[in-house]
Amino acid sequence: MSGPFKRLETQVVHAGDPRPRIDGAVEIPIFQSATYEYRGEARYDDVRYLRLNNTPTQLALQAKIAALEGAQSALVTASGMAAITTTLLTVLTAGDHLLAQSCLYGGTHDFVTREFAGLGLSADFIDADRPETWRAQLKPNTRAVYVEAMTNPLLEVADLSAVVEFARAHRLLTIIDNTFASPVNYRPIAAGFDLSIHSATKYLNGHSDIVAGVVSGSQALIERIRHKANYLGGSLDPHAAFLVNRGLKTLVLRVRYQNESTLRLAQFLESHPAVNAVHYAGLASHPRHERARRLFAGFGGVLSFELQGGAERADEFASRVQIPAVAPSLGGVHTLLTRPATTSHSGLAPEDRRRLGISDGLLRLSVGVEATEDLLEDFAQALR
């Protein structure tokens, strides 16, 4: 971004804000209006209207996120799933085929496996760690590749550079869910991806008090997605947009602290005799640690781990910890603990979870901004 807002720490505070400031207000106001005066707009999508995602609070947030992502444009939506489904329904039409990473967020996986066929779409799942196998799954009607920066809940790290190269070689669109990494740790557009999606409910907002989504990319692609969103109706309300904008201003501070805190917790858990496995790319023992070091500025605020004793021991541990809330979701200031088999991935058949490596006893931890020492002490007492 040109001008004085060059670095991420400055962009999260100032990018997208109107200049001059509205009546001198340091914070952009909430424009709590669905309807605006007609000013001669020639196209329906340009008429100023809340559902059309072009009101002042929405526009300011979209400009800020585009700056953070290094993208030409961005579109905010009513949820992360609204961003995912609207994007896929824009870039794919009846008869098209998608290549998707095998271990996806449960909601995305269910949409692809349960809804695609009824829409005339098809998909095949790829092992995102083995580029040599992807060509065999290409079809004449393959249009796009969909991956995640860090997978949920096993924190796998795909060969993202190979994804971009493969897609360019075969003229495919690249889509990445960057929720777990956030723009602080990874900027997919700069790495060559066409579209970057976030559940803004998570790190971008960071306070577990709203639901929102966003997709960023070229002006032309985002304009197509916006038109589709205008019909589907998944627009973000002004107050939620204001809260995401506010939350973004501490994004860099939060995420960098969470990177450090999560690494220390991962190291503690890995060394504990009651823990069978820890999944976190920041650990030297992680099979893709070196790849993650090359790709990311930080390893993120989520880890998962498995205790000796399976699901029963996992539930016992969850009942003993005092600081984490036992709740789904992630990316906020509160530390959250959940068992994916009963929450985010409960929609998958048990055999599918086992095939993906998601055991019934797997616990996912989203580390907040509490004192790391307090979390370490709490985990130590819960593991005794």
Briefly characterize the structure.
It contains 14 helices and twelve strands. The chain is of the alpha/beta class. It has a seven-stranded mixed β-sheet, with helices on both faces. It has a five-stranded mixed β-sheet with strand order 8-9-12-11-10.
The name of the CATH superfamily of the largest domain reads: Type I PLP-dependent aspartate aminotransferase-like (Major domain)
| Biggest beta-sheet profile | 7 strands, mixed
Q: Which CATH top level class of the largest domain fits?
A: Alpha Beta
Taken from the alpha-carbon principal axes, the silhouette is globular
Characterise the protein shown here.
The chain folds into two domains: 8-248, Type I PLP-dependent aspartate aminotransferase-like (Major domain) (Aspartate Aminotransferase, domain 2), CATH 3.40.640.10; 251-383, Aspartate Aminotransferase, domain 1 (Alpha-Beta Complex), CATH 3.90.1150. Helix content is 38%, strand content 15%. It contains 14 helices and twelve strands. The strands form two sheets. A seven-stranded mixed sheet has the order 1-7-6-5-4-2-3, sandwiched between helices. Strand 2, helix 4 (106-115) and strand 3 form a beta-alpha-beta unit.
Reconstruct the topology from this structure.
Layout: H1 8-14, H2 56-69, E1 73-77, H3 80-91, E2 97-101, H4 106-115, E3 122-126, E4 142-148, H5 160-169, E5 173-177, H6 182-185, H7 188-191, E6 195-199, E7 213-217, H8 219-232, H9 238-248, H10 251-271, E8 275-279, H11 289-295, E9 302-307, H12 310-320, E10 325-326, E11 336-338, H13 350-356, E12 362-366, H14 372-383
Parallel strand pairs: 2-3, 2-4, 4-5, 5-6, 10-11
Antiparallel strand pairs: 1-7, 6-7, 8-9, 9-12, 11-12
Helix pairs in contact: 1-2, 2-9, 3-8
